[in-house]
Amino acid sequence: MKIRNNDPLDLEGDNSETITVKVQSSGTQFLVNYVLDGAGSPLSAGQPLVFTLDKSKHDPSILTFLVTFSDPAGGVYRFEVTGSNNVDTSIYVVTQSFGIPGNSVTYTFDVV
Amino acid sequence: MSKSVRYLLLAILLYFSGVVTARSQEKLRSCDELAELQQTNPRAGSYYEKQFCDTARQIKEAKSGNPAAGIQPIPKAGLNLRRHFYFFVFALVGKSGRASYIVDAEEARTDKQVGATDANAGSTSLTTKGSVPSVLGFAVENGALTKTTSGTTITFRGNPMGIIKALGKTGFIQSYDEEVNDRTTHLLRKFCFSLSFDANRGATPGTFTGDLQQVSSYSFRYDIINKGDPRDQKYKKDWDAFLTGAGQPLADQLQTSLLALTNLGQNPPNASWKDASLEEWYGKADQAVSNATVADVEATLREMLSQVPLSKLSSDTQNEIRKLDLRFQAYLKTREDILENVSKSSILTLEYTNNRQINAPDLSNFKLIAATGFGRRVDLTANASFTIFNTIPPGSNLNRVRDFSISTQIDARAGQVGGLGMIVFSLSGKYERMMENATVPGSGTSMMNTKGDIAVGQLKLTVPVKGSGVKIPISLTIANRTELIKEREVRGNIGITFDLDSIFAKLKP
User: Chain A partners of B47 at a C-beta cutoff of 8 Å?
Assistant: First the structure.
């Protein structure tokens, strides 16, 4: 998996590559929903999201996260995305500033 | 219609037009102003303001970089659909005029006791609140409530575990997470202390020296029940239901709308909008923000948002905005409902206070404090306490129990006033039964015929001050008598309190 355009959310992966996403939270209940190519569910704390890129089904693969902050201030979510082909590690942090209730980020995986 | 009625109607019309104008302007205050408001009320501001300022902050950080975190500055950083899509659709929903919930302001807790209790020579609190600062707070208050002699009391109130963590390397947020996993730390967090100084005592009366002679009281308290934190395990089921019932539908809709509104689903992904008018505006906005200096990001983004071509959006785009509107509404409302439930939770605290008297036996006061909320605007607190003499002087015929009392207080948040933040009105009443005669301060002489009932009523206004965690409580107290004098008494009291939690959370997240 490679990071494109110096953007940790703009990713490129090989066909059949296994992608692992670890999400950690601090200062908030762990409140994470994800949608991968149209299907998703809440994510449990400590449980990584693991999936395989399949060019024949989804290219690009689209992974959307919705994070919610349980407290008025001080929440942080840290995303770490790695691929089984081990080129780059994408790290992205969603910080709660100005008391936002939640936020969303979308990863695109261009399958090559 | 008479002239006077017409003038009155005109005045009302002008007043409300002024209010409406003021509220319209409030929808997007400057981020500095919002940050200042949130120092005294972390939940101040509308959702739109919060998301706007958060987005501006993200862009500023991208431009500035963070060398400590190994993030290189990108001076030309602009808009990014992968990370800002949420904000843009949120803004479009808000700007569409349908979503009043997006401009609703959030309210803050009022359940913290920072100042001294009414047993001191200086106090503005007839009823003691249930919660205290997580780290440290201090208060300077002038004027007694039930004592005959007024003075100035300086109170430090805090949580030993919070202070230890604060002085260590652990951040405010991290420390809370560690506590949840560490039973001992979690238990210790339930204890807290206070130390009050009477500035009129000691070698230099009127000057606060902080020496032992000026210590007028100290206290310890233990939280028997305190469920006022959204991260408490009690609310896990609510949050789980929230994730399934409101979070997931919004997440699903966000991805559906992202694919419907942008070209990120194309091969290769293209970070652009499908709607021609939106894409034209976005291109200009991106260029303007990219070219803006860090200092200009907020103003540039604000200006560009004012130019969103709402009327030119295609019907497909408007349909997606409507779908998102419903999901955002359910998501924010469900979260608010949980937080409202949290705010209604009960607090039960036991407090022991040792009041150090001059030339008289010290007093021990045992107080049970119960508090609960009624929605987001009203809190109810009740106290029940009794006081005993620590020692009985030889030859004295004093009973051990000096007094007992009950009190109650209602706090109502009145709303944001100007740039001050959340003003709180409080109404409090106290009944105290003096089982023994009162002692004259300083002389230790027992004042005859001072046993009996004391009834006190208090009206209090707590005004937050621009800046960090500062509040000014101003109270008017009416009593049928004081401890020493059996005559009606009306007093005005004023103080200043500092809750350092909000400052600490900002300095050391």
Answer: 100-101
Between B489 and B228, the higher pLDDT residue: B489
- Nearest-CB residue to B258 (from A59, A106, A110): A106
Between B489 and A38, residue with greater pLDDT: A38
B242/A34 touch (CB, cutoff 8 Å), yes or no = no
Cis? peptide before B42, omega within 30° of 0: no
Say which residue the tokens 């969103």 belong to.
Answer: B308
Instruction: Pick the range with the lowest mean pLDDT from B1-15, B43-57, B254-268.
Output: B1-15
Residues B390, B401: Cα–Cα separation, whole Å: 10
pLDDT number for residue B465: 67
> Which residues of chain B does A60 touch, with a Cβ-Cβ cutoff of 8 Å?
264-269
Token look-up 């709180």 returns: B424
CB contact at 8 A, B223 and B160: no
- Which residue, B261, B277, B284, B283, is CA-closest to B312? B277
Cα(B196)–Cα(B155) distance, rounded to whole angstroms?
A: 4
The closest CB to that of A31, out of B53, B82, B239, belongs to: B239
In this structure, the strands spanning B191-198 and B152-158 are antiparallel
Nearest residue in chain B measured CA to CA from A91:
B71
Contact across the interface for A40 and B251, Cβ inside 8 Å: yes
Please report residues of A whose CB lies closer than 8 A to that of B502: 73
Q: What confidence category does residue B171 fall into, taking pLDDT thresholds of 50, 70 and 90? A: very low
Give the per-residue pLDDT at B493: 79
pLDDT tens, residue by residue, B362-385? 999 999 999 887 766 788 899 999
Kindly determine whether residue A35 and residue B172, on different chains, have CB atoms separated by under 8 Å.
no
Contact B111, B228 (CB under 8 A): yes
Token pair of B166 as six digits: 């604060």
pLDDT computed for residue B203 by the predictor: 78
CB contact under 8 A, B242 and A35: no
Which residues make beta-bridge pairs with B105? Answer: B46
Nearest residue, CB atoms, A62 vs list B108, B264, B338 = B264
Lookup: tokens for B464: 């937050």
Q: Which two tokens stand for residue B498?
A: 């500092």
pLDDT, position B421: 63
As a whole number, the mean pLDDT across chain B is 79
The pTM (predicted TM-score) of the whole model is 0.67
Across residues B313-332, what is the average pLDDT?
92
Which residues lie across from B458 on neighbouring strands? Answer: B428, B477
Q: How confident is the model at residue B107 (pLDDT cuts 50, 70, 90)?
A: very low
Distance from CA of A101 to the nearest CA of B (A): 8
Contact check, Cβ <8 Å, A70/B332: no
DSSP B261: H
Are A42 and B85 within 8 A, CB to CB? no
